[in-house]
Design a protein that fits this description.
Length: 387
């Protein structure tokens, strides 16, 4: 039996009663079927084996605020609703879109079905306001029971699969973190020892550098889970961006030192202006871009450069690496995208730039890429400066 918690929010008692009817067991439905005048209704009321394997716990609310309160309570009681069916028009209270928005603020995972009889909705506006359009469905009245059941069965499976995927990634990442921290920590400890031969010193450096890269991959995985379940939060604080960039760049110096044929040039101009920034997230974005530059450059130079121009703040990372084919440039910010032809042997999950894109988006900033195959790439971030 699959257990599903569902809430129906509608101001019309007859509609709530119709929903309730849908969950009555077969016997009652059989009786109802006898009286059904239209054949379609008979068909619609028929149960299926699959539907019978669902154990639906249903609650009702007759207005938006009551619905929001019930969702809040379910979260407190650690028994959240997987699906909310919300009527669009519920005068005189808050409408369905506003109800959905408030519910989404409380629970980023719930699947929302907005029931509407109108075709003139501004879908872009509602999607934007409510958030997570991947978990928002519009459904027009009138509907048949079977359609609603189908939605419930599909959405609850989707919800469950997402939960399994997220908890799997996040458990694996947390489990990897602790051993990685010891490998990295003990490698640093060994590195500081005086009586290592040149060979031993080199091997310890390799262990250290690779554990740092793996720690970054684990962080990427955890961040991508946060992005998936809407828990990716940014706290913008007005500050000078240069010290953050400097600290991130410095942390990459030891990694570059081990790549003999690549120079790492740090060229940070002092700037007077401030920017609204989340320091931790910007550091993560810079490290992702620098790590890529390092991974995809075998010879030449990687340069990080920042400056201000016309009141904006610019951060550029350029490399003389393998470059990206023109037709692939727009794909590299997608999740799990990797331009495989070029680098079968270079490690990565294809998540780094999707995280960078999300971070840049939350900073109201832009990111641009210029690249030429075989010559190198330049990633430029532009932030609005504040005096
Ligand atoms: P990952 O580096 O883990 O593969 P990213 O999302 O960071 O994932 O990057 C996506 C893809 O974009 C990379 O796999 C690579 O094909 C391409 N790419 C990113 N940065 C560079 C670069 N500096 N030079 C060449 N290709 C790059």
């Amino acid at each position: 039996m699959k257990s599903v918690n569902i809430i129906f929010i509608d101001d019309e008692p007859e509609i709530l009663a119709a929903y309730e009817n849908m969950f009555k067991k077969k016997k009652t439905l059989g009786k109802l079927d006898k009286f059904a005048k239209v054949k379609k209704e008979k068909v619609a009321n028929k149960s299926s084996k699959l539907w019978d394997s669902f154990d639906c716990k249903i609650q009702f609310a007759s207005n938006g605020l009551e619905g929001v309160a019930k969702v809040e309570k379910s979260l407190e009681e650690k028994s959240p609703f997987q699906i909310a069916f919300i009527d669009m028009r519920m005068p005189p209270g808050i409408n369905g879109a506003e109800t959905a928005k408030r519910i989404r603020e409380l629970d980023s995972n719930i699947e929302i079905v907005l029931i509407t009889a109108y075709s003139d909705l501004n879908l872009d506006e509602i999607n934007e306001n409510v958030g997570r359009p991947d978990k928002l469905i519009y459904f027009k009245k009138p509907f048949y029971n079977e359609e609603i059941r189908q939605i419930i069965m599909n959405l609850s499976s989707k919800y469950e699969n997402e939960r399994i995927k997220e908890s799997f990634i996040s458990n694996v990442s947390h489990e990897l973190r602790t051993p990685l921290a010891s490998i990295s920590g003990f490698a640093s400890f060994l590195k500081s020892s005086d009586n290592l031969t040149a060979d031993q010193e080199e091997y310890v450096s390799i262990i250290k550098d690779n554990s740092v890269l793996m720690e970054q991959l684990v962080d990427e995985l955890l961040t991508s889970v946060q992005m998936m379940n809407g828990k990716f939060k940014i706290e913008l604080i007005k500050q000078n961006p240069v010290p953050i960039i400097e600290s991130a760049a410095k942390s990459m110096i030891p990694l570059f030192q081990n790549i003999k044929e690549v120079d790492f040039e740090v060229d940070l101009e002092k700037v007077e202006l401030n920017v609204m920034l989340d320091a931790t997230k910007i550091r993560q974005a810079i490290l992702n871009i620098l790590t890529n530059a390092m991974k995809f450059t075998k010879k030449g130079k990687v340069r990080i450069h920042c400056f201000s121009e016309n009141g904006d703040f610019y951060l550029k990372v350029s490399d003389t690496g393998i470059g990206i084919p023109q037709d692939k440039v727009k794909l590299i910010f997608d999740r799990f995208s990797r331009i495989e032809d070029n680098h079968h042997s270079i490690p990565g999950l294809g998540l780094g730039l999707s995280i960078v894109k999300e971070i840049v988006y939350h900073h109201n900033a832009d990111i641009m890429v210029e690249s030429e195959l075989g010559k190198g790439s330049t990633f430029t971030m532009r932030f609005k400066g504040i005096a």
